[in-house]
Amino acid sequence: MEGGGRMPVGNSTKSAEKRVPGRPFEKGKSGNPSGRPKKDPSVTAMFKGACPDAVKLLITTMNDENVKPELRVDCAKTIINRVMGKELQPIQADVFKAEQPLTLDECFAIAEEVLHEAGGPTAP
Questions:
Q1: What is the dihedral of CA 90, 93, 97, 103, to 10 degrees?
Q2: Where does residue 96 fall: left (phi above 0), alpha (psi -120 to 50 degrees), or beta otherwise?
Q3: CB-CB contact of 91 with 77 (8 Å)
Q4: Is residue 93 in a domain?
Q5: Rounded Cα gap, residues 99 and 12, in angstroms
Q6: How far apart are CA 53 and CA 45, in angstroms?
């Protein structure tokens, strides 16, 4: 047994020796040539048919005072996210900090300076 204790199978001796962890397929060959399997239309139709009942359950659970508040809030969030879309996730990017916002003329001056340094065209 050569090649790390593996035994080659059939007539794949050469390709079995070349394979390394993370590269189980031959170079240039896809491991999934047909792509992702298509959804079964009957399953999609079944889930679409269940949507009205699911919405009613969310609303009923949200309005039921005997249900834990956490679950009621989760139902409310699910309804809001579906109707309004999920809230934007803030990101922090300290790319440029200015004491005060730049004027349009200052922006043009900076852009012109950058273009000049790069050897690009300048304004007349």
A1: -70
A2: beta
A3: no
A4: no
A5: 67
A6: 14
Q: Where are the beta strands (DSSP E) in the chain?
A: none
User: Treating both helix axes as pointing N-terminal to C-terminal, what angle do 69-84 and 41-63 enclose, rounded to 10 degrees?
Assistant: 130
Q: What is the pLDDT of residues 51-97, one digit of tens each?
A: 999 999 999 999 999 999 999 999 999 999 888 888 888 887 766 66
DSSP three-state, residue 20: strand
Name the domain count of the chain: 1
β-partners of residue 23 are: 20
Q: What is the chain's mean pLDDT, rounded?
A: 79
For residue 47, being part of any structural domain is answered with: yes
**Helix, strand, or coil (residue 23):** strand
What is the maximal distance between C-alpha atoms in the chain?
76
**CA distances for 72 relative to 6, 78, 85, angstroms:** 56, 10, 19
Answer whether residue 100 is part of any domain.
Answer: no
State the Rg of the chain over Cα. Answer: 30
Q: What gap in Å lies between CA 48 and CA 27, rounded to an integer?
A: 42
